[in-house]
Write a structure and sequence with these properties.
Elements lengths: L1 H14 L1 H8 L7 H32 L5 H46 L1 E3 L7 E4 L6 E4 L6 E5 H6 L2 H17 L1 H14 L7 H20 L4 H10 L10 E2 L5 H9 L5 H30 L1
Parallel strand pairs: 2-4
Antiparallel strand pairs: 1-2, 3-4, 3-5
């Protein structure tokens, strides 16, 4: 009976209190790959713990010893809660995925209609909108992605800055950061606010931009990217798109200025992510293995 209680408590802790604490540890952004692994492990561990709590309770009541009517009733209740949790996740995934893909498909069609494709910019096909506000963003998609800049962006940025911004957007598309954000959006929308934490969703948005910044500076100038981000500050990104200024700008510039490797921190955070994911897995699997013996 102890295992379901532990898993239930772990699920509640990983759903809200733990993400709130992790969001305050802004130093994690200096190792964005390891930090993203930690956030993904936290989310997956929360789901595993929530589903495992119900399944463990059903196993405990129906597979161990004599089964009475209260045992059956409790097992049915636990199974029902587990089905509700899984159902809400599947429904949220369907709704979120359908909405995002429809939104992006419509926006790509609008871009193709209103923008001109300039293949002279960095020898790439960039969609240029005739707009007076500097903007730069990408629209991901399985059937074809778009990198969009406005006409005023081309005049506001010098060639090195423009190259850095385009490299940032291409890293979004290459790493499929949209899928990472979509997964956390699904989790955020699947449950009530008192269960799900907005801190996780926001911090992952920041980390996605930091990861794109890190990838961009491997292909472009670091100072040029920082300068371009400041020039584009305040520009808005359409729904479903990923923009160069889509998250906390000051935090990202601070990370860009930090050129230290932080290898020890990356290792420790990665090990913490692995341990966090192993905890609910072991609590679910080990009792079943001992029961089979």
């Amino acid at each position: 009976m102890l295992t379901p209680l532990l898993l239930g408590a772990l699920a509640l802790a990983l759903a809200s209190p733990v993400p709130r604490v992790l969001a305050r540890w802004t130093w994690l952004r200096h190792t964005p790959v390891a930090a993203m692994l930690l956030w993904q492990s936290t989310a997956l561990a929360a789901v595993l713990a929530a589903l495992g709590a119900g399944l463990s309770l059903v196993t405990h009541r129906l597979w161990e010893g004599r089964v009475d009517a209260p045992d059956v009733a409790l097992a049915v209740l636990a199974g029902g809660v587990t089905v509700v949790v899984a159902g809400r996740l599947l429904l949220s995934g369907h709704r979120t995925g359908t909405t995002l893909r429809r939104l992006r498909r419509r926006h790509r069609d609008q871009v193709d209609l209103l923008a001109r494709v300039d293949r002279e910019i960095l020898h790439r096909g960039i969609s240029v909108l005739d707009h007076e506000v500097p903007v730069a963003y990408c629209v991901p998609g399985m059937s074809g992605s778009r990198i969009v800049v406005s006409r005023s962006t081309l005049t506001a940025l010098d060639p090195a800055e423009l190259a850095a911004v385009v490299a940032h957007e291409r890293s979004h598309l290459r790493a499929r950061h949209d899928l990472v954000l979509e997964a956390f959006t699904v989790l955020h929308r699947a449950f009530p606010r008192w269960v799900s934490s907005a801190a996780a969703h926001h911090e992952v948005q920041v980390l996605v931009e930091v990861l794109a910044d890190k990838a961009a500076v491997r292909r472009a100038d670091r100072r040029a990217l920082a300068s371009a981000l400041l020039t584009l500050a305040g520009s808005r990104t359409p729904g479903g798109a990923l923009g160069a200024t889509g998250a906390t700008l000051a935090a990202r510039v601070a990370v860009l200025r930090d050129t230290r490797p932080h290898r020890v921190q990356a290792l420790v955070v990665t090990l913490a992510a692995a341990a966090l994911l192993a905890l609910p897995t072991s609590l679910v699997v080990l009792p079943w293995l001992s029961g089979l013996r």
